[in-house]
Amino acid sequence: MTRFTNALTQIALVAAASLSSMVLLQASTASAQTPTSFASGASYFSAELANPVEKTTKIIQGVVWQCEGTVCSGSKATSRPINACSRLSRKMGDVTSFTTRSEPMAGEDLAACNAKG
Known about the structure:
By secondary structure, the protein is of the alpha+beta class. 44% of the residues lie in helices and 31% in strands. The chain folds into 2 domains: 1-34; 45-114, no CATH class. It has helices at residues 2-32, 81-92, 107-114; strands at 45-60, 63-74, 95-100, 103-104. Strand 3 and strand 4 (103-104) form a beta hairpin. The longest helix has 31 residues, at 2-32. 18% of the residues are buried.
């Protein structure tokens, strides 16, 4: 009878460990899929425009931009920062500052961003 009891105990422990692992995996997957919160300032790209625009949301080459006034926030995408900036500039007007996460774009790159050629 003790072998049977030990086997049941081991099965119960394995089942509990498996269930715990599944719950942790589900929780980490759910948090990774949470959309970027633009309101909380958690955007990947941020830009300051030279001229204000109406409140708008635009998808430009895979980047979801939310703009209001002179401030725009963009979601993470596969675009290089200079490309995301250039596309935003073409669609929304000149960009006076551009930041990727917390890294501001250098002056010469910002000038290239606004070159519409």
